[in-house]
Amino acid sequence: MTYLNELEQALVGLPKNEQENIIEYYRNYLADGGLSDEEARVKLGEPAVLAEKLKADFDQEDGDEVTTRAKQTQPLTRGQFILVILTSPIWLLVTLISFLGIASLPLLAWGIALSLIIVSAFSGIAGAVVLTQNFWGGLFYIGMAVISIGLSIMFSPCATWLVMKATDWTKALLLKIQHTARRVMNHE
Fold first, then answer.
1. What is the 3-state secondary structure (H, E, C) of the chain?
2. Closest CA to 104 of 153, 159, 155
3. At what angle do helices 78-86 and 88-131 cross, to 10 degrees?
4. pLDDT (tens digit, 9 = 90+) per residue, 54-112?
5. Rounded to whole angstroms, how far apart are CA atoms 67 and 56?
6. What percent of the chain has pLDDT over 90?
7. 141 φ, ψ to 5°?
8. Could you give the CA distance from residue 11 to residue 16 in angstroms, rounded to a whole number?
């Protein structure tokens, strides 16, 4: 009995098309390598052992397929679909508020940074004017201007980070809405 015949007999239990694919693969492998039956036993091992490994690999792949199919979402029932439609004013309002909240964070951050710059400009001007009348009062206002400039410089990277994060959050929210809308529209 040849190596391929023994392998074919040991593959019983696998689907017929899978058996044919495996035998065809090893037929080509042996032909390309110019291996005899004895050389195939040395290189590949006993046909029964090889068949057990191939069966185990097939079972694992088949199990992954079953797991993937089990993870797929269940379709919405008519009642769930009607519930989604009836509650749409609420979840549309929540979505709109979420978008506005995310969009307002970077605007708020840049507004604070800009207001600190404006405060520093006015404090600096006020300090220069007051300095001629009251030395310590003028120094106070000039110190406030320097502190405000420093805070705006420190706050600008935070504002930039918030803009980038708001973009990521908006993208995530849009993807979630898109996924949910597809499920609802397809009655999945």
1. CCHHHHHHHHCECECHHHHHHHHHHHHHHHHHHCCCHHHHHHHHCCHHHHHHHHHHHHHHHHHHHHHHHHHCCCCCCHHHHHHHHHCHHHHHHHHHHHHHHHHHHHHHHHHHHHHHHHHHHHHHHHHHHHHCCCHHHHHHHHHHHHHHHHHHHHHHHHHHHHHHHHHHHHHHHHHHHHHHHHHHHCCC
2. 159
3. 40
4. 888 877 765 544 444 444 455 667 787 788 788 888 888 888 888 888 888 888 888 88
5. 16
6. 18
7. -65, -40
8. 9
Q: Indicate whether this model's pTM tops 0.70.
A: no
Pick the residue with more confidence: 139 or 105?
A: 139
Distances (CA, A) of 3 to 7, 30, 51, 111, 141: 6, 10, 11, 78, 95
Predicted local confidence at residue 76, as pLDDT: 65
Using alpha carbons only, what angle is made at residue 106 by residues 115 and 151, rounded to the nearest 5 degrees?
Answer: 40
- 123: CB partners within 8 A, 6+ apart: 141, 142, 144, 145, 148
pLDDT digits (tens, 9 = 90+) for 2-17: 888 888 888 888 888 8
| Closest C-alpha among 76, 69, 70, 71 to residue 188 | 76
Q: Tokens at residue 154, please? A: 């420190």
Question: What is the rounded CA–CA span in Å between residue 19 and residue 46?
Answer: 17
Highest mean pLDDT (candidates 97-111, 119-133, 172-186): 119-133
